[in-house]
Design a protein that fits this description.
This protein is mainly α. The chain is 53% helix and 0% strand. The termini are close together.
């Protein structure tokens, strides 16, 4: 599992945000488009792509895309 692929999958959950704006160090809650619906999309994507259960609490405890990646990687 590579972070580059994870970032792409993460970025694809946003309709209006350019993929190039999202990097490992991006604080995802500062993305203008971020909402509770985005959180649900991320949770669903992680389940579908990586077969890992991510909870809302996990996202609340994360700041950056890399933080989310590390949780997913550790549960894989």
């Amino acid at each position: 599992m590579e972070i580059k692929e994870f970032i792409e999958n993460f970025a694809n959950q946003f309709d209006e945000t350019d993929i190039s704006e999202i990097k490992a160090e991006t604080v995802f809650k500062e993305i203008e488009e971020w909402s509770s619906l985005s959180a649900l999309s991320i949770i669903a994507m992680v389940d579908e792509e990586y077969d890992v259960v991510l909870k809302g609490e996990d996202l609340r405890n994360c700041s950056t895309v890399e933080d989310v990646f590390n949780i997913v990687k550790n549960r894989k």
